[in-house]
Amino acid sequence: MRHLLFCLFFITCGLQAQTLNKTDSNRVKPSDTLVIDSGFKDSLKVFKPTIYDYTYQTQFSEKKIFDTAFTQDKTFIFSQYNNKDNFGKIQFANIGSGFQPLVFEVNTDQNLSLLPTNKSAFLRGINDIKYYDVKTPTTTFIYHNAVRNGAVLYSTYTQNIGKNFNFAVEYTGLRSQGNYLKSLAANNTTQFSAHYLSENKKYEAFGHFIHQNINNEEYGGIADVNLFLNGDSDFNNRENLEVNLNNSNSRFAYRRFYFSHEFRPFASEKFPFKIRHTIFNQSNKYYYNQSQPESFYFTDASDLINYSADSKKYSKNLSNTVSILFDKESFKLDAGIRHQLIKLGIGSPLPVSQNIPQELSESRIGAVGNLKINLLGKIALNSNFEFSTGTEFGSFLRSQNLIRFEPIPEYFVNAKVNFQTGSPSFNLLLNPSVYRKFNYYLEDPKNESITEIGGDVNLKWFKSNVFANFFRVDNYTYLDDLAQPQQSATSLNISQIGGEATFSSGKFHLNPKVLFQSAIGNKDLLPMPNFVGRANLYWQSKAFKDAAEIQAGVKVYYFSKFASREFFPVLNEFILPSANSYSIGGQPIADVYFNLKVKRMFFFIEAQHLNTTFMKNKSFTVPYYPIYDFRLNLGIVWYLFS
């Protein structure tokens, strides 16, 4: 009832607060700020902003306008606490507790850094930071309700000072109690960003500071799966189920200072050269805290070592890059040198008998480059290159190449060839623990090398997209069923093929998306479902004399049964299944929703996992961690253009 009253309050505010529609992108043409005749015979001009006066960009992307269209993809984005379409991932029972990846992909933010896999869903890397350009002060609110108690609120305020300088302040707070004992999630993010472009456009600067905390109680899954599956009414209250851990929590702190500026020394367009300097300092810290050792992980005192029950790992990266750019509209090339100081360490030294160093550090030198070519607006090439080497973590090489062309108007083809080789994720290199069996040091590891070949074809017919990817991973690094890092002696090969389309008849629409994947050889090292799919059947129409717009429909998710990896809270990573594990999947997850747009306010109301109201919940995110039960999920998005 509280959520429904909250919704009605926001609807009323939206109808009252936005009677003056300054930025309706459906009623204005893509142009600069409109100049409206004042009606008097004098020099007074009245400027009326349009939606095209409110833009954002990442440092190396083109500007985009604020996306206020009520498209089908919004129901997948703003129904999620991280405001992303999480296709190919399955959420834990409590929001803020992460996802299990069902589909293989490369996370470049893990390169030469400490980033536990299950802490990555909420993080913002350098290329995720938005810089704004707005004609009037602009505020955005995004709200999500939590599980049992709590909420998620994402707020942004941005303003231009003059025409050339913009700053933005963003804050995200998440607190969700969860239905199971010891499953509280509490995350927060503070971010400042700024962008400056000089009047003569010869100097440009981007800068940001971000501090993120991702904190979770770790309950270790339910102790007796049969009590969950049998459907005894005594356990409909999930707090009555015994859990494996009672006094453990994990914390991840992520902080970055970033500044990049570039200068064009020549005024003539014949010499479009620029000099760019970029510096950033990033630190990652991971803590696993316990008031005392958990009996779930040991049987007698000999299984413990003389070490604190709490453990800490950290990484630091101080990076300096100087580049020279050749910047034409159809041809851009930059190349530079990069110096990095990188550290990986643990909080307190372990006993000498463990033979695990307290800190690894090195000074790295390398080169970076980027090439962009645009031919007649029909063919575009974007290539990135990075190489560095050091004495401790070895060499790192990454080459990313994407070509996009339009053979027929409104039919696009994208092809990519990517390669990278470098140290395994820092979280797999070393670990300190009071539990003897969870200490490790992966000394002199081989470089993990990943080759990716793929692409997609975008067709006008049914707004369809067909894609295919192939991955070859050499020296694949993983955690075995004992939570110890291992490297495969033979390559892991993964193929993926899938597609998406939208079929429409009047106001009714069907939007399915499917992905088929398989591992060719070494499939036991990375268990994955062979099929992942979803379908969205919905009705969309204007309402209330075109003052609002409605979406209503049903979404169904499904992934095939497979012998899933298990979640290991000590590392916040996924490990190979134990002998007592079991397969998950093969169960549909159905959501019924009603979405509403009023001016610049959106409401997303979902009955999630509705099928558990008439059948037992037998679905799991990973073994011993059931997926969420039925819940009313609310999302609210409000853009305020002052």
TrEMBL record:
InterPro entries: Porin_10. Keywords: Signal. Residues 1-17 form the signal peptide. It comes from the Bacteria. This is Porin. Pfam families: Porin_10 (PF14121). The keyword Signal applies.
